[in-house]
């Protein structure tokens, strides 16, 4: 019954013009397939097994999301102790360029997919599943597009989310919107290190202190970002950190692809089950 109701189209039983509702009586009148009990158990076991596999994949993804911060802490320790271990500077010392995204209105069509603040996750990753599009002039392409290794900084959001970051780990052609700042590091510094620092509990506390609240949102501008104190560990150590994060990202991509296949399989099994084909 659980799997039947998850996949059931209740639209014919829903009423209400201003507010849709499904009453208990309407629910009880919904027609569902009713195979013999042994067959129900067999189908439920197949679907439960497929669903459990999907749940395990999601657990692995959550673990891999947490692994970046674990590696960061393992390699660099507590940022509160950095001054006794490395030279200190500010983020601006590590950057080659810092630029705001375009304010052009995005839509459902255009040459360039555009990254918006919703594409930057709280865990410090890019989510490319929900993209809008814009057109850019030839002159604007280098100004408002990203390349692999750039860090994106969300300058305007809620008080809790402002300042979230992600590193571009794709060669896909992408533009960026105005609520994002593109940070491009100098060759001797690594954006993965800067991003992990700003995503750490220590970095989040700095972001909260800097955030200037307005109506329903908060802001940290590019100048304030560049003045944030940060350690300047050796280039070699930063590169080793990036290599470890890229390895984790490759594992995550592989698991994500498996989860997509699992979801497709589960949907197929559901459809076949309710057509009596399992």
UniProtKB/TrEMBL annotation:
Q: Domain of life, per the record?
A: Bacteria
What InterPro entries does the record point to?
A: Restrct_endonuc_typeI_TRD, Restrct_endonuc_typeI_TRD_sf, Type-I_RS_S_subunit
What is any Pfam family matched here? Methylase_S
Query: What positions does the domain Type I restriction modification DNA specificity occupy?
Result: 13-59
Q: Which residues form the signal peptide?
A: none
PANTHER family reported for this sequence:
TYPE I RESTRICTION ENZYME MJAVIII SPECIFICITY SUBUNIT (PTHR30408:SF12), TYPE-1 RESTRICTION ENZYME ECOKI SPECIFICITY PROTEIN (PTHR30408)
**Protein name in the entry:** Restriction endonuclease S subunit
């Amino acid at each position: 019954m659980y799997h039947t109701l998850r996949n059931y189209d209740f639209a014919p039983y829903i009423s209400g013009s201003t507010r849709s509702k499904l009453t208990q009586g309407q629910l009880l009148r919904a027609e569902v397939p009713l195979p013999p009990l042994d067959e129900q158990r067999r189908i439920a076991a197949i679907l439960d097994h497929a669903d459990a596999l999907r749940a395990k994949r999601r657990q692995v993804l959550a673990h891999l999301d947490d692994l970046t911060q674990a590696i960061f802490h393992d390699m660099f320790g507590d940022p509160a102790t950095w001054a006794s271990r490395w030279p200190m500077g500010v983020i601006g010392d590590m950057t080659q360029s810092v630029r705001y995204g375009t304010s052009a209105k995005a839509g459902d069509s255009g040459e360039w997919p555009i990254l918006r603040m919703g594409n930057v996750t709280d865990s410090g990753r890019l989510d490319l599943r929900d993209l809008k599009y814009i057109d850019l002039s030839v002159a604007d392409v280098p100004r408002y597009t990203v390349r692999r290794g750039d860090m994106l900084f969300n300058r305007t959001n809620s008080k809790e989310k402002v300042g979230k970051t992600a590193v571009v780990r794709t060669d896909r052609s992408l533009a960026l919107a105005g609520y994002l700042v593109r940070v491009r590091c100098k060759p001797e510094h690594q954006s993965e290190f800067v991003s992990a620092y700003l995503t750490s509990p220590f970095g989040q506390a700095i972001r909260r202190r800097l955030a200037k609240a307005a109506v329903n949102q908060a802001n940290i501008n590019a100048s304030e970002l560049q003045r944030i104190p940060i350690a300047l560990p050796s280039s070699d150590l930063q590169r080793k950190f990036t290599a470890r994060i890229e390895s984790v990202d490759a594992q995550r991509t592989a698991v994500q692809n498996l989860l997509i296949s699992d979801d497709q399989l589960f949907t197929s099994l559901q459809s076949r089950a309710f057509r009596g084909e399992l």
